[in-house]
Design brief:
The chain is mainly alpha-helical. It has helices at residues 9-17, 27-51, 67-82, and strands spanning 3-4, 62-63, 95-96, 101-102. It has one domain (3-129).
């Protein structure tokens, strides 16, 4: 079954980049524009895949922006929580301050940072006390 991930920062960036009155638009309107943007490209890609000869249930793809899809995720999360599989601990969450949204780890890009480093080698006093295995 064909499917598309219709959420995420790349979509939000494209939509907000093209907005003229960013201050006067509500979150709900931004979300609606993101849904429209994602649907537009789902349709474009679907037609491209068909032209390539790919077979699939094109009329009923899974789309992460479908409310039914989101409801299933919430229901499954509830089941996992009831079984005690959900752990709340300390883990960093990558966050975009501009978009005020969480980032997937795959969306985080690091730039090379050259810093001064020093490597110091010390002799071991008694190597028989240590095992490297």
């Amino acid at each position: 079954m064909p499917g598309w991930d219709c959420h995420g920062l790349p979509i939000e960036h494209q939509v907000t980049k093209n907005l003229k009155n960013k201050e006067n638009i509500s979150i709900i309107e931004i979300r609606q524009k993101c849904r429209e943007f994602a649907a537009k490209f789902v349709n474009i890609q679907r037609e491209e895949f068909k032209r390539l000869g790919n077979y699939g249930e094109w009329g009923h793809p899974y789309l992460t922006m479908n409310f039914e899809y989101e409801a299933v995720i919430i229901e499954e999360f509830r089941k996992l929580a009831k079984l005690g599989y959900i752990f709340h601990g300390l883990k960093p969450i990558y966050w975009c301050g501009t978009c005020e949204t969480a980032l997937a780890e795959a969306e985080v890009e690091y730039q090379d940072d050259s810093t001064d480093s020093i490597y110091v080698k010390f002799p071991l006093a008694n190597t028989r006390k240590f095992s490297l295995i």
